[in-house]
């Protein structure tokens, strides 16, 4: 069995943003040489997310609005922020959107359904964060 690990550095200039990382993950799969296996992609920070959905700008705008309604950035609202942080909302947004995705690899390619793309979601941006891609298989 083969194993391949790649880390990406993400730096979103806004507090909240979404980055389509599908091409970087596809490249990591090609670099791995794995033909049949699994690809894990996960955010290595507690205020960031990885998820799969449609690459449609309206949907991404809807996510921004929906997440801000569910967990508004109002620092006085969160007990977590008593630690000196102002990112209590970012922790909640990450919990909603998820930590990682796992995608099957078939014939050396990510085995997606129609319209699926991989996104990095940032909820406490403006600094560098890491993203892990781990590929295993034959």
Summarize this structure as a short list of keywords or feature phrases.
Jelly Rolls, three-stranded antiparallel sheet, five-stranded antiparallel sheet, single chain, alpha+beta, 8 strands, 138 residues
What does it look like?
This protein is an alpha+beta fold and 138 residues long. It has a single domain (2-137), classed as Jelly Rolls, CATH 2.60.120. The protein contains 3 helices and 8 strands. The chain has a 5-stranded antiparallel beta sheet with strand order 1-8-3-5-6, covered by helices on one side. A 3-stranded antiparallel beta sheet has the order 2-7-4, with helices on both faces. The mean pLDDT is 97.
Which CATH top level class fits? Answer: Mainly Beta
Shape annotation: elongated
Give me the CATH superfamily.
Answer: YjbQ-like
Question: Which consecutive residue ranges, at least 5 long each, have pLDDT under 50?
Answer: none
């Amino acid at each position: 069995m083969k194993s391949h690990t790649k880390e990406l550095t993400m730096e979103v200039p806004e507090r909240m943003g979404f980055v389509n990382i599908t091409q970087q993950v596809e490249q990591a799969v090609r670099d791995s040489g794995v033909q049949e296996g699994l690809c894990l992609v996960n955010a290595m920070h507690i205020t960031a997310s990885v998820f799969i959905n449609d690459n449609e700008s309206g949907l991404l705008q809807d996510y921004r609005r929906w997440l801000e309604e569910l967990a508004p950035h109002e620092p006085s609202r969160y007990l977590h922020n008593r630690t000196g942080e102002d990112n209590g909302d970012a922790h909640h947004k990450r919990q909603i959107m998820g930590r990682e995705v796992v995608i099957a690899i078939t014939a050396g390619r990510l085995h997606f359904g129609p319209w699926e793309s991989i996104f990095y979601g940032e909820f406490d941006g403006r600094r560098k964060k890491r993203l892990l891609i781990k590929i295993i298989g034959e």
